Sequence to fold (200 residues):
Amino acid sequence: MMKKLSDRELLSILLGEEGESYSMRSLAELFGLRVMRHEKPIGVAEEVLPYAMPDRLMAARELLRRALEEDFEESSDSLSSPASVHDYLRLFLGGQEFESFVALWLDAQHRLIAGMELFRGTLTQTSVYPREVVKKGLALNAAAVIFAHNHPSGVAEPSQSDRMLTDALKQALSLVDIRVLDHFIVADTTVMSFAERGLI
Fold:
């Protein structure tokens, strides 16, 4: 699984021997994300992905995800850019054949503490347990969180159960002073925001 490989191993898959010369560089600098944060965060995707074989495609995808994550950890500005968050979530969740529920835990300045998969389900559903979510937020000393899950069906529309779950999580986390900033649904290349729809 690509998420378990080191940056050096991923770069070697993507670039071959040339990857060695990039291994010690900042991933965000390698992909030019810092200077493109407010424009088009993943500017190299069109150049790399269409020509990649499956392993290279997955390596490029994982490196881009890590580069965005690195940028989120260092600056709260990037998380205020909807395009950057959408790109990160598409890289994290897009193309999966199972439902996955993830959380982006943030500190008081809205810098990323950790982005992680909390629960994994089947093609059509995922069981999410608010108690476990609260425990994880407390363990990370988070001040805020952004939730996301994918719809392998390809339809990025919230179900009634999605809305009920979001309300339950928001209520549970408010008791421990963790603010739910948004909940995204990812389907193929489409990302839907609860906040943008006025649902949170």
